[in-house]
């Protein structure tokens, strides 16, 4: 019996139950049969449909045996939620992204009467591409901040690598003996959360540490300045500008640009007077823009290198030596790549209309 005769006779007797796959395979085999005497081969049909030949062979064999290619009855547990309820969950979760799985379950039960477990809620949200993740912590941005960031990015978006090579990016950071990273995971058994070996003791404000200052420029970097006290305008002028920045200004000439953020010590009157007397041009910088400063990633590199030291520093003198050593060990090509990413940072800021960027 031919493909066409089989298909027609089974449908006329009402024993053929179409499925999405059968609606694709059987009509095509029937259509191709009408153009040739014996019908097209399974290989030709599989190539045309983009389906494996084994699938077509299995469907056709099942059709010859019992006249049915639909999915067999499944004994599995039926879905608790309907497609409409799944869409309701998607809209609700996106509307209030801080809702917990229990909150969403209660809202679904209140709206539709369907009760689901937390695990089912995780599964449904995962099917639509939503997963529980920690939110990214960023500095708060006002409308004015966004406007200034956008204007700065547009002004510098077309700068060439030669222009960026004249800019020294600088910043301060703080490193303590106790890491404040919350990305650390441990292996523990259930019910042992508060066992001594499964806890990390940490001072509320990070404990003792060092304040560091550094500057990076294409092809070079300053020495790392380490101090235990808070940065002041006098220290910034007498140490940072006089002992570090002024040397690079003398070596590079009038094209040199010095970038620092808008921290209060950086904008002191004595600092402005020093910059003017030394003929150091300061680059305008939008407030609350750490994502535009490539040295922030250098601090991250430095922190990871300190954390990877074995054994780790256990006292302030050891931490100071580790900071100085690891600062010098950071490959210069990695720093250069960060500086050369400035056009991409500006573009990302423009795309986000001055709001937060992935950097």
From TrEMBL:
GO terms for molecular function: DNA binding. It comes from the Eukaryota. One of its GO terms (biological process) is DNA integration. SUPFAM superfamilies: Homeodomain-like. Residues 167-310 form the Tc1-like transposase DDE domain. InterPro entries: Homeodomain-like_sf, RNaseH_sf, Tc1-like_DDE_dom, Transposase_5, Transposase_Tc1-like. Residues 86-156 form the Transposase Tc1-like domain. It is found in: Nucleus. GO terms for cellular component: nucleus. Pfam families: DDE_3, HTH_Tnp_Tc3_2. PANTHER family: SI:DKEY-77F5.3 (PTHR23022:SF135), TRANSPOSABLE ELEMENT-RELATED (PTHR23022). This is Transposable element Tcb1 transposase.
């Amino acid at each position: 019996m031919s493909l066409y005769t089989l298909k027609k006779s089974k449908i006329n007797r009402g024993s053929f139950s179409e499925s999405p796959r059968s609606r694709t395979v059987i009509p095509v085999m029937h259509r191709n049969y009408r153009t040739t005497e014996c019908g097209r081969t399974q290989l030709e049909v599989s190539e045309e449909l983009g389906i494996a030949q084994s699938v077509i062979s299995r469907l056709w064999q099942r059709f010859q045996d019992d006249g049915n290619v639909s999915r067999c009855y499944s004994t599995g547990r039926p879905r608790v939620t309907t497609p409409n309820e799944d869409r309701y969950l998607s809209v609700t979760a996106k509307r209030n992204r801080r809702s917990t799985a229990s909150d969403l379950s209660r809202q679904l039960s209140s709206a539709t009467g369907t009760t689901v477990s937390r695990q089912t809620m995780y599964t449904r949200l995962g099917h639509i591409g939503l997963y529980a993740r920690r939110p990214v912590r960023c500095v708060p941005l006002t409308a004015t901040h966004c406007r200034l960031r956008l204007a700065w990015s547009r002004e510098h978006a077309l700068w060439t690598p030669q222009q960026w090579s004249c800019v020294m990016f600088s910043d301060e950071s703080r490193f303590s003996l106790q890491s404040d990273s919350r990305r650390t995971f441990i292996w523990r058994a259930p019910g042992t959360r508060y066992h001594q070996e499964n806890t990390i003791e940490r001072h509320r404000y990070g404990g003792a540490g060092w304040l560091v200052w550094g500057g990076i420029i294409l092809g070079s970097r300053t020495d790392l300045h380490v101090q235990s006290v808070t940065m002041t305008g006098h220290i910034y002028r007498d140490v940072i500008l006089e002992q570090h920045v002024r040397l690079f200004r003398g070596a590079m000439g009038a094209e040199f640009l010095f970038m620092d953020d808008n921290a209060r010590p950086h904008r002191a009157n004595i600092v402005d007077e020093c910059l003017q007397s030394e003929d150091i041009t300061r680059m305008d910088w939008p407030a609350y823009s750490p994502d535009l400063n490539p040295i922030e990633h250098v601090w991250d590199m430095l922190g990871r290198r300190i954390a990877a030291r074995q054994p780790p520093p256990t006292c302030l003198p050891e931490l100071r030596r580790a900071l100085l050593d690891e600062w010098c060990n950071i490959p210069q090509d990695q720093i250069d790549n960060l500086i050369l990413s400035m056009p991409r940072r500006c573009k990302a800021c423009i795309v986000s209309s001055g709001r937060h960027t992935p950097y």
